[in-house]
Amino acid sequence: MTPGAGCWDWRSAYPAPAKLNLFLGVVGRRPDGYHLLQSVFRLLDRGDVLRFAPRKPGLVSLAMPLPGVPPEADLTVRAARLLQAETGCREGVEIAVEKRLPMGGGLGGGSSDAATVLLALNHLWQLGLPRRRLLEIGLALGADVPFFVFGQTAFAEGVGESLRAMDVPPAWYVVLEPPVQVPTAAIFSAPELRRDTPRIEASEWRPGIGGNDLEAVVTARYPEVAGAIGWLAQFGRAQMSGSGACVFAEFARRETAQAALDQIPDGMRGWVSAGVDQHPLRGLAS
User: Fold this and answer.
1) Of 115, 128, 130, 242, whose CB neighbour count within 10 A is largest?
2) How many CA atoms lie within 13 A of 187 on its CB side?
3) pLDDT digit string (tens) for 36-71?
4) Active-site residue, selected from the candidate residues 9, 19, 48, 56
5) Residues 33, 155: Cα–Cα separation, whole Å
6) Cα 232 to Cα 45, 108, 268, distances in angstroms
7) At residue 221, what are phi and psi to the nearest 5 degrees?
């Protein structure tokens, strides 16, 4: 069960959970250059945390801008301003982001933050937009944003905007964070990227089916990612999430996952997280 709208107010801390791509196939490319994908997105019980404070009309600001990211380019600011523009809302807000997810990690941190802004401010500003409209606004911000607004385990197609809810078994994951940031655009533009993986039907997918077509490109360019996959593979099937750099392996029990993580070499960073079926803020939109 996810908390209802009445549980959330200006004093609340709003979660922005991470996601994993349980597989990621590049099945084609549109004439405009966007890649056609298939993937299964799963939420984790670990993520960033956002807080909001009302400010003077029209103002959108960050409590603490991310290093190296101009505020006008920050996805949380862009999400709030787009919501203002789409609704004519003149409310203002200050956004505070507690970053717990790595940038350039393939866990959807920035996209999840943007989705949390859309869900939270739609509620706090009492805009009343339905989930369908928030999905459309989210797509203008990035291909992964609609999934976080959708808010449940999903089979994704298109550029990531076509989402179908699905059930997957309970699982725990060991997630490793190689010390690199992988630029998504550079990986998708790589000439060696495979773009003709055969499509599968959502009804045919099961855990363990499919790999990550971006992985070969990333591991060839970033030995840190290849090394993380190689180490984690001793405990089971290890693969990359999204365009990297983070890699993961699935476990049936938390104790088994923690036992694997306890053996992590010096200099390697990782954590254990549970897969979750629904976004904690799913109750904020209908």
Assistant:
1) 115
2) 23
3) 999 999 999 999 999 999 999 999 999 998 888 888
4) 19
5) 22
6) 21, 21, 11
7) -100, -25
What are the pLDDT digits (tens) for 75-103? 999 999 999 999 999 999 999 999 999 99
pLDDT digits (tens, 9 = 90+) for 111-140: 999 999 999 999 999 999 999 999 999 999
Q: Can the peptide bond before residue 13 be classed as cis, meaning omega within 30 degrees of 0?
A: no
d(CA 49, CA 97): 6
Question: Exactly one of 48, 144, 196, 262 is catalytic; which is it?
Answer: 144
The CATH classification of domain 1-286, taken from the options 3.30.230.10, 1.10.357.10, 3.10.105.10, 2.60.40.10: 3.30.230.10
Task: Report d(CA 232, CA 214) in Å as an integer.
Answer: 18
What backbone torsions phi and psi does residue 250 show, to the nearest 5 degrees?
Answer: -100, 145
| Residue 87, phi then psi, degrees to nearest 5 | -115, -10
Per DSSP, the three-state class of 111 is: helix
pLDDT of residue 1 exceeding 80, the answer is no
State the angle between helix axes of 109-124 and 131-139 in degrees (0 to 180), rounded to the nearest 10: 140
At residue 28, the 3 state secondary structure works out as strand
Q: Note if 56 is an active site residue.
A: no
What is the DSSP track for 190-235? Answer: -TT----PPP--GGG--TT---BTTHHHHHHH-HHHHHHHHHHGGG
Catalytic residue at 19? yes
